[in-house]
TrEMBL record:
Pfam family, one: Amidase
Residue ranges of every copy of the Amidase domain listed in the record: 25-444
Tree of life domain: Bacteria
Protein name: Amidase
Cross-referenced SUPFAM superfamilies: Amidase signature (AS) enzymes
Taxonomic placement: Bacteria, Bacillati, Actinomycetota, Actinomycetes, Micrococcales
Species, as recorded: Leucobacter alluvii
Amino acid sequence: MADPAELSATELRAALGARDISAVEAVTAYLARIERGAAVNAMVTVDAASALRRAAQLDAEGPDPRLPLFGLPVGIKDTHDTAGMRTTYGSIRHAEHVPQRDALHVRRMREAGAIVIGKTNVPEYAAGSHSVNRVFGATRNPYALDRSAGGSSGGAAAALAARQVALADGSDMGGSLRNPASFCNVVGLRPSPGVVPEAESTNLLTPLTTAGPMGRTVDDVALLLSVIGTPDARTPIAAPSLGAAGEPRDLRGLRVAWAPTLGGNAPLSADVAEVLERAVALLAEAGASVETACPDLSGAADAFLTLRAAEFEMTWGDALDADPEDFNERLTWNITQGRSLTGRDIMSAQERQTALMRGAARFFENFDVLLAPAVTVAPFPVDWDYPRTIAGEVQAHYLDWMRAATTITVLGVPALSVPAGFTRESLPVGLQMVGPFGSDHRLLGIARAYEALTGFARHSPELPTASHHWSNEAR
């Protein structure tokens, strides 16, 4: 019998449906991988007993074709509520917090047959693209344990790469799905705003943050999107669902824009550039028409910083006053930046975002897809906060180095990171693919066709054997 943990989620679902593998066998295999890869520190709360009970129940009921995630062990980001399972938000103040109900998309995953095996690590309050906090410490990159796994969905990406979960959810404000996917050689999709409903969101009009799917392959991501990406009446904006999820796109004649530095907005390190140039050449060899081009991103980085700071102050300003020790210096800085903003500042940023979104719509009249780095550097040392320089350019703060992702966020369009290869130091690199608003499924089709040209999705890291007993059971 094949090791269930080595199968992609779609392959495992087929094996479960055919009863070639039982759900208990699948969960047992993934629990063993979590124990073996304890040094990665991706899964920070594990409820083995509940996962095995749910697996036995599903085995007794038998495979149900109406449950697309039947028997699949999944990890849930530790900023997303899970009923009865500890959810800390990466915060010392919430280190023992146990929610009473699931987040909407988590409930949908359970209802589709998924088995929640545990929670994945995050930065404090998911702020930043390096997953470290004072509750659980740092998540390490499975491909190099001395390197970052990215963030804020770093635990999710690392768990997928280390074969500790079959699927994982994440969220993305300024690259939190795309950055860790790039760092860990997996796929992460930031959907169009509204595709994955946020039932409790306080900003439905121009949201910077959206939940989204992560997986080892494009098909796996499409599978999870088919479950969590359906409308909800509490989210009145929604992008249309176009085409079959993950349907492959013929690359011949595809109109591709290649923007290695996003029009000079994001400095690119030489080692990442080398990998991405090969990736773009593959598409050209497959018949795509590739042109160096980029939408106008003037002011995008500043608009993102303004809107993010305003949102952070609104969300955590009172909490910072009440308990300043709960917030690290980067969060405190970001919240304080929000307090200095005027109404004019915020409305000007929204006005700039509107102009950028309209410009992107015009740009995509001439191109089917925009290609860019998901991250402009390879995974950096795990004891760094962030890279201080990229290609000789000093990064002003912990958000500055993520401009390849933050500038795309402001456009309000779908974007994903798909494995593009490895640097000469054997560190993963992701290619960012961006499409017009509402083109999520078509974008997945393009990514799936690209993925078929490479074997990178089948790469897995070699992890040292470790002995670990879970002290972080659901409480």
